[in-house]
Amino acid sequence: MGYVPEEPYLYNHLSAVEYLTMVAQLRGLPGRQSSECIDGLLRLLALHDDRHASISGYSKGMRQKVLIAAALMHNPDLILLDEPFSGLDVGTAMVLRSLIQELAARGKVVLFSSHELDTVERVCAHVVILHRGKIVADDSIERLRSLMALPTLEAIFSQLAVEQDTESTARQLADLIHA
Prior knowledge:
There is one protein chain. This protein has helices spanning 16-26, 31-44, 60-72, 90-105, 117-123, 141-148, 153-161, 166-178; strands at residues 2-4, 78-82, 109-113, 126-131, 134-140. The protein is of the alpha/beta class. The protein is globular and about 55 Å long.
């Protein structure tokens, strides 16, 4: 299993190369193979120039890229992504969206937790919507659209899991700060 947590807990005193080498060793990957993989991942994720810098100096997006590399380097069959787009620049987010689809097409199981419903709608084939810890929907996005006669995943989610009138709340907030 590969896991990208929402919060990037890393050993900040290490460089990306040192951190990924440690992860590779913990997973029992052969040294030469892991070195080539780490180098390739860092190049493709645009971290190669900063590979020897301390992670403590990395931006949130750079840290997220290190976590993505660590989660993928051992070619897991199951990848668990918890808010993986947090802090990523637009280009890297586009790469990650395509990567999720590519991995799924290659038979990997990708579980993806996100509040970015437009991204979920573009990337996922199947969704599970939770409300107060209970499953309120578990189906393909297309089937949910058809069953609920709603055009977007956001509209479906709003119908199933949002208990407040979001437009009214937004108006009240705007009125409050405009007073």
